[in-house]
Amino acid sequence: MKTSRRDFIKTTGLGSIGLSILPNFYSFAETPQSLARKSPESQGISSEGIRNFLKAIKDSGLEWHSFMLLRHGNVVAEGWWKPFSAANKHTLYSLSKSFTSTAIGFLVTEGKISVNDQVIKFFPEETPASPSENLKAMKIKHLLTMNTGHHTDSMPDIRAKPDQSWVKSFLEKPVEHEPSTFFMYNTGATYMLGAILHKVTGQILEEYLQPRLFAPLNIKGYDWEKSPQGLNTAGYGLRVSTEDIAKFGQLYLQKGKWQGKQLLPESWINEATSKQTTSQAGDNDWSQGYGYQFWRCKPGFYRGDGAYGQFCMVMPEQDAVLVMTSESWNLQKSMDTAYQTILPAIKNTTLPENPSELSALKTELAELSLSVPKGSTKSSLMSKYSDKIFNVEKNAFGITQMGFGLFDDAGVLRLNFGKGMEKIGFGWEKWKVNPAKQKNPFSANPIVIPSRIASTATWLNDNTLQINFKFVDQIHGDKLTVVFDENKVSIALLGSVAENTKNNPEKREKLIGTLA
């Protein structure tokens, strides 16, 4: 999106980084599988077409983390780019909105609300004393379709008042347009859906969805960020696995039915995923129309999507679901890559098995990996600085000391926050995943969500060490440029968002240390 949706990425404060036909063929998972695995050809998809998809991904220059392709309810291909794996829960960003919409669908189905209910009736204590006519006219349906009448996203206004409830801040924001007459991608509107659900049920979204959605679909280990008031953020912040996203898409493809049970009415699925409003004219896939927190797609199907390329594409005509997770800087290019390769590979009948293509696909899926910087795995200074302690100048992160273990087979970064050294291991020009979840040590943001950190390092020259982090339970990463100079060391930081965008410059200062 050209304006408001990109603004969402900034206004959330990047809290999420701050925050089988053959045995074991497709899955490299450490987690139990719920969906059946079949060969692509048996489900009418060519292995060659999927290989074309993988080649197009490589040629795109964009960063994919995972994908999963379903046909007729079966997984026909799946892959994770190391250091990501099937066990990871991935931050969904705005793909979370589609889960919130689903919760509203359950609430409507249970007769507890109507999409035509007035928003302010649920919040008499937090509604302004003299609400405007436009605010009084705002209905739940307007929240669902991003037609609240606000001229700008409400999330910046919400975050500008950290000591005030998010609901009150939303209701205080002027409503410049009559609801239903002005489309504006509005993450605060999605938060209000979760707040209404809480008012009606006394439960937050994840509690309410547990017996209705998560348990039936066998979605486990999820987590969802919360506002200061303890409500799920609703418009972002949900983390589930790639297969969990696929199951969610399959539920919608099956018109709300799961394992013979109708979880959501077909009528609600149709209503939620059809075009309810015009959207952003002239903005490619974002101009195809919007439903209830679902976007329409150029080829005629629909999707839930989130910032940096978290996609759940549901293709009813093809009886297929495509899930993609990534850190993409061009979401339209990500979608076009799928449209141009996956869609032509889908046929109306089964195909003859193609052992050679299947074998080649197997190999390519097993070898998927994010690229690593390469310079040299050795430096003449390794022994000089290995296991030494540096006292660190005052900094925003609270780091008092740091050190490096520089060994032939691997390395370790050591950081002391005043409570003893914490360690982050790295591989030489290969990814090493640190098993314990931890917060990004170079973030001063108190709401950063813990993640396992994958690290790789290389020597750019004899005294310059580059260490790359990837937060594998999240999306983003950090680049550390470490310069050794006699008894000094400095670390310059560059986040992946700052490195790849123009409107999020790196603001963190260098760390400076002196040999103890």
UniProtKB/TrEMBL annotation:
<feature type="domain" description="Beta-lactamase-related">
    <location>
        <begin position="66"/>
        <end position="339"/>
    </location>
</feature>
<dbReference type="InterPro" id="IPR012338">
    <property type="entry name" value="Beta-lactam/transpept-like"/>
</dbReference>
<dbReference type="Pfam" id="PF00144">
    <property type="entry name" value="Beta-lactamase"/>
</dbReference>
<dbReference type="InterPro" id="IPR050789">
    <property type="entry name" value="Diverse_Enzym_Activities"/>
</dbReference>
<dbReference type="InterPro" id="IPR006311">
    <property type="entry name" value="TAT_signal"/>
</dbReference>
<dbReference type="InterPro" id="IPR001466">
    <property type="entry name" value="Beta-lactam-related"/>
</dbReference>
<protein>
    <submittedName>
        <fullName>Beta-lactamase</fullName>
    </submittedName>
</protein>
